[in-house]
Amino acid sequence: MMQCRDIDELLMDFLYQELDAEKTEAFRSHVDSCARCGQEIASLSRTRQALQALPEAEPSPAVTARLLHEAGKRAVRAESGGLLGWLHRLIGPVVAHPAWAAAASLILVAGVAGFLSLRGKVTGQAQEVAVESAPAAMSAPAAAAPAPPPRDRPAATEEPRPAEVRDLGEGARADYAPKVPAPAVAQPPPAKAKEKARASLDSDPADRRRLGRTASTEEDLKLSAKPAERKSAPAKKEAANLAGDDFGGVAAAPPPPAEASQPRDLEKKSEVAASEGEREQAAAGGKGQRLEDAPAKEPPAGPASTLSARGYAGAPEPSPAPSAPPPQTQAPAPAQTKSLAQNADEVQSKQTKEPPEQELFRLAQKQATSGLCVEALGNRDKIARMNAEFYRKRVAGDPSLRACEEQQQRSKRPARQKDGLRAPAEAVETQKAN
Amino acid sequence: MLRYQKGEVRAFEVLLGRHRRPVFNFILRFVGDPAQAEDLLQECFLRVIKGADNYQRQAKFTTWLYTIARNLCVDASRRGKHRKAYSLDVPMDQNAGKEGATLLDVVPDKAAGTDRKAISRELSGRLHAAIGKLSDDQREVFLMREFLDMPFRDIAEVVGCPENTVKSRMRYALEKLREELEEYADLAKALP
Asked: Rounded to the nearest 10 degrees, how much is the dihedral formed by the CA atoms of A177, A183, A187, A189?
């Protein structure tokens, strides 16, 4: 049985129905029998009933919308999760600042403008080079002229002459001494350019043309010069003469300058003309006499390469100077140049069926019949040095050469008797006997 | 709440629809100012959003939510924005004399019927004023128990005091309201 003191302790629980059933029953029993407790509970119940009249208010929809928006932003971060979400939470408030947004926009615009500007410059340069190379490819003299050097090698024109020029023999130097300083294109290409030239030697010229570069670059010049780089001196001179008088220095320079100044289109023309040149050479007989001195490492370039420039020039070959052997063919070319040229020279030498001594012999015969006894005998001596057996079998008994020899002996006998000199043929025979 | 914790916005929408009205009324009855009540309601749910990552399943969501709301109300009260108890009978404009409108006249009431609306409006004004006269400790307990229907155990957890203390505060609050509303007891009886 509950007391009034117990009722005071359980009054709130009873009013708000938090008492269990047993206590509720005991509470009701006491309240029914106790007037004071019953009146207290009735009074508080009326107060609670009056509180129920208090109306409920509704929050404004704007608050709800704002809260949903904020909740959506947080949900995006939660979905991103991981490192990305962490970074977003870290730098998000900083990046969201208007000043940062303005700075980022400025940097973006400046970057795009700079990129477009650089791209425009590069494109303009390529177009400029293409325009420069176009007329060079269309006209031969202009093609032979040295194209403007690349912009990245402005000092090339002041560099010394290449080793090939320095290694020329004295005779050749006397014959082909440049009247103006050698142009820059005569210099051997730098190592990098050589590698490029080697790499693109077997490539299609169209591929090289696609690169947007002209033949005036040194690597391309070297490339176009490869087949004819070991030409005989007259051929070089002819090719050089193609450039015209204005480029005498180029013409006097060794093959690279003369040929280097030709663009790739010219190279094609030269190759086409090579076949014509071969026919012409076969008719002329002795135009490749300079090949006799070609070193063993470098098979004779053959008339094909010699005549390529000649055929391109379309001009008659000037009379050769047999007394002046072309020492430039003996000059040691750069190793890379050799290796590059060997393949082409081998191919060309296979196409040359006649041995050089035979060609030289024909030339000597022709000279002997023409009255050029000095040159004829000089060639005869060369044949003797080249191939003694061939000399004994065919050259020594040649009547035209013997007639020349006798003529020479008659004209020089007094002097020879004085000086004790001998004819070249006799000297050779004496050496062999010794 | 766990679904929203994983990034499901729809879950938060459900939570907001379920709890925004009781929380708003709790805050409104605590601070007495609708504008301030809306600000505090917004702040309350913003704290829920920001604290979603730290929410633990062991805690009851309503307990957590009303703890936030109660703390906001207490802080607002401590900042000096004490709720002012206005007399429902005294004209709000003291310069207007006895002819001015009283608080009872302007308190909104959604009840239908002219007489009933008038009675209810008068009573709700009285109730607002009576609740405003309670101390913060008594008011928060009274509001939670009477209008949010929270058990005393949960209220004790929210306010951080023993359950018996909560019951005592509740009884004192009811007795005080009874004194304030004694003259309107008959008026309350007239309401259905």
From this structure: -150
Partners of B188 on chain A (C-beta within 8 Å) are 46, 49-50, 53
Q: What is the ipTM of this complex?
A: 0.74
In sign, the C-alpha dihedral spanning A415, A418, A422, A424 is: negative
Query: Residue A327 to residues A167, A175, A354, A387, B70: CA-CA distances in angstroms?
Result: 8, 11, 22, 19, 109
CB distance from A417 to chain B under 8 Å? no
Decide if A67 and B4 are in contact by the 8 Å CB cutoff. no
Whether A71 sits inside 8 A of B167 (CB atoms) is no
Q: Do B191 and A57 touch (CB under 8 A)?
A: no
Partner residues linked to B102 by β-bridges: B91
Interface test with A, best of B16, B29, B55 (most A CBs within 10 A): B16
Separation in Å, CA of B6 to nearest CA in chain A: 6
| Residue A223 token pair | 């490339």
Query: Which residue does chain A place closest to B22, by CA atoms?
Result: A56
| pTM of structure | 0.41
Which of A345, A351, A277 lies closest to A312, judged by CA? A277
B residues 56-115 near A, CB within 8 Å?
Answer: 108-111
- From first to last of its 434 residues, chain A has per-residue pLDDT tens of 778 888 888 889 999 989 889 889 988 889 888 888 898 888 888 888 888 878 888 888 888 888 888 878 776 665 555 666 666 666 665 656 677 778 888 899 999 998 888 887 655 555 555 555 544 444 444 444 444 444 444 443 444 444 443 444 444 444 444 444 444 444 444 444 445 444 444 444 444 444 444 434 444 444 444 444 444 444 444 444 443 343 433 333 344 444 444 444 444 444 444 444 444 444 444 443 443 343 434 444 444 333 333 434 333 444 444 444 444 444 444 444 444 445 545 545 555 567 788 888 888 888 888 888 888 888 888 888 888 888 888 888 888 888 888 888 887 665 444 444 444 555 555 555 55
